[in-house]
Amino acid sequence: MPRALIVGRAREVRRTEYAVKEAFKCLGFRVKVFDDVKVASWVGEALTNFLFRRALRRWRPDVVYFSKALHLYPKTIGYASGLCPTVMWYFDSCKIIDEQTLDRARRVTCFFTVSPRDVEDFRSKEIRAFHLPQAYYLPKTPSSLSRAEAASEVAFIGNNSGDEYRMKFLKFLGRKYELTVWGNGWEGLRGYCRVPNRRVFGEDYRIVCENTKILLGLHSFLGMRSRTGAVSNRLWNTLACGGFLLYQEVRGFQILKDGEHLVFFSGIVDARDKIDYYLSHEEERRRVSLEGQKAVLERHSYISRVKEMLKILSTL
Q1: Of 157, 154, 147, residue with least CA distance to 173
Q2: Residue 66 and residue 90: Cα distance in Å, rounded?
């Protein structure tokens, strides 16, 4: 049985690394986790790197998967790559690729990123980079929401990162629709819409998607539209739950089809017009959400992503 060593916070059920770990297991790997974040908080970075090298020598994995691995020295990542194939999967689209990320990306066998545009940037710096979008993952956490609490005409799920664009957009929509904004940091929206001031995961996320007529996907900064092909993991999660997703357009995104699996909007006026249309066309809304759910459940799991990762790795 092949062995995979997962570096990152893969024991925490809400983390994407946990989904990656479970995917490796489903594909027949024996899996161990090295949580560089937790170990470094206990013993410091120098001893963390020593312990990681020792784990590599003792367990002899067939592949090492790195998250960001910020507590491992670049030379330690390079050491791992000298022993077996290594991969790093970067989930954030980069506004600017920093030297810390570049130094780590150079040390792995394959570097994966969710943005096709970032692939071009990394390859221009002689890094073996490949595009691999995120997938759906809903942690198995119990529900604490009733259907009545979750129900809304329009909802947005996500924390407030201090982006004024999102705030203005949601205030505009809150004046016209029954809008609920799930996540932390949205106190400034009180009086414009319903603000439960709580995050939703797992079954709560599913219940929100099932009981909201339109889920809104809104970029955290306007420049995301030009980050070709990059989308949030909430796109996959919302569709997997059967939600109808109205998502801000992303240049070059062709994995799913506009009007068939989800609906894209170009700006605030277009979003308003499409909300009006789909609120009054329930059957069409239902058709799109069902097709979107089917496509994502069939082809966009973390098992399928790890399969693709291993396929690319095997060609090098």
Answers
A1: 154
A2: 9
What's the rounded Cα separation, in Å, for the pair 149 and 94? Answer: 36
Long-range pairs of 223-227 with CB within 8 A, sequence gap ≥ 24: 223/95, 224/93, 224/248, 224/250, 225/249, 225/250, 225/251, 226/117, 226/251, 227/93, 227/115, 227/117, 227/118, 227/251
User: By C-alpha distance, which of 200, 275, 192, 183 is closest to 241?
Assistant: 200
Whether the Cβ atoms of residue 309 and residue 113 lie closer than 8 Å to each other: no
Closest CA to 244 of 194, 272, 188, 284: 284
Phi, psi of 118 (to 5 degrees): -65, -30
Stated as kind and residue range, the H or E segment containing 208 is helix 202-210
Q: What is the mean pLDDT of the chain?
A: 93
Question: What span, in angstroms and rounded, lies between the C-alpha atoms of 70 and 91?
Answer: 14
> pTM of the entire structure?
0.92
Q: Which domains are delineated in the chain?
A: 3-135+301-314 (3.40.50.2000), 147-299 (3.40.50.2000)
Per residue in 90-99, pLDDT (tens digit) is: 987 766 678 8
CA dist 214 and 9 (Å) reads 33
